[in-house]
Amino acid sequence: MDYKNTDAALTTVTYDKVRIEEPTENIYQSIAIMAKRASQISEDLKRELVDKLEEFATHNDSLEEVFENKEQIEVSRFYEKLPKSTAIAVQEWLEDKIYYRDPKEADSNE
User: Fold this and answer.
1) CA 34 to centroid of chain Cα atoms
2) Surface-to-core class of residue 30, CB atoms within 10 Å of its CB (0-12 exposed, 13-18 middle, 19+ buried)
3) CA 70, chain centre distance (Å)
4) pLDDT tens, 37-60?
C-alpha cells in the first residue's frame, strides 16, 4: 500500500458514526478492526523510515563527530508530514479497502 499518496485527513475530523459502524453493524468491532489496521500501517511506516535512515547511519564510536545530514533531516520531515496511521486506517475503512472476517461466523458456517 502506498501511504504517501493517500487522501487521509491531516487534522482531526468528525466522522458519521452510522457510516463507521455500517459494515459490521457494531461500532466497537469497527473501531477494533481500524485499530488493528492502524497498528499494521504504523509498523510498515516505521520499518520503512528506519530502513531509509540506516543509509545515513555512521558507525563511529566517537561522539565528537556529530553532524547534521540534510538528506536525513528531509526524510524525517517527510514522514512527519504524512497523515497519522489512524487517519489512514479510517480512510481505508470508509473506502472499503480493509478486508476483515469474524472467526466466530466462519466456524458457525462450516
Assistant:
1) 10
2) buried
3) 25
4) 999 999 999 999 999 888 877 666
